[in-house]
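Hi R.,

Here's the chain you asked about this morning:
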Amino acid sequence: MSLAGPVMNFIIAFLSLVLCMLFAVYGGEDSAFAQTGFLLCYYSVQMNIGLGVFNLIPFPPLDGSKILLSFLPDKLCYAILRRERLIALVMVGLTVLGVFTPVLNF
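And the predicted structure, written out as tokens:
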């Protein structure tokens, strides 16, 4: 269930890339509609790939933590779940400070 969000981001990125290529090939160079559509799809690709990768980071409350927990032993899983709120607060703090900016800009 936790994979649904990131997978959907990657599917939307792929479909946006296909639309981007269609605008580039069939849109014409002077068409404002084609240029606007191309840019919209281009930014959609970037945004959805960034969100998909960000969601796979294995820290609560992101989806990557739920995926990681499914592979860990029960004892370790319960220890992490007990500290999930604290980890989530640290995660929000790191995001606000821009620690994940290089990952998203990649």
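The mean pLDDT is 87.

Let me know if you need anything else.
M.
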